[in-house]
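Appendix B, record 7
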Amino acid sequence: MTSASLTGEGRTNPYTMPARPAHKERYSMSISSPKTRVTLVIVVSLLAVGVAYAAITLELWVGTSNHIGLWNGPAKLTARTLKTPIGETTGRWHYHPGYVYNVVRQGTITIEDGCGSIQSYSVGQAFETSEGRVHRAYNLGDVDEVESNMFVGPPGRPITVFIPGNERRCGPPSTVDECKGDGWASFNFPNPFANQGQCTEYVNHRARVMLLVPEDPLP
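Structure tokens (predicted):
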């Protein structure tokens, strides 16, 4: 098992979100020469909508196994502690190739699904971002958000895959019910469907893992 200090999911492409108040930072720089001394005072206004933030990986542990039941074979497990700073509203659209389980330890994180649903999670809440579903995350709270993540995925694949061009994508569908009515027409990831039947067939043929429910006989 190894550990590494890496940057987390880079979230640098701006998009329109509620702007935070502008603030100013003042920098003083002195330039000296034999004949002259010039003091330059630079005042820079930083608007939140134009600032590039990024989630920060505080801790990362990676291990491999010849067999993990959840993956039904060889798998890579990644334990990560991630901090999403206040004002991080530039989350990039992405998905995770494996299973991901998350616990919020501080603050509140907002997860936006590519199909439109938005859900916020606060301290003590857990959530899953699995099944390859496209989503993005941001922090609209008043404190930095910190969460613990556990990734269970295929060896040789990254824990996060970003959508090219940071395009918003909807999908893939997880249940047949999502295909009913006009639901099938909303999906465009990994590919759009021509009709409800195609959507239903896709869901029914997605790979599945059968697991035994752990026994817990003692009170």
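Remarks on this record: The helical segments are 196-204. The two ends are 34 Å apart (CA to CA).
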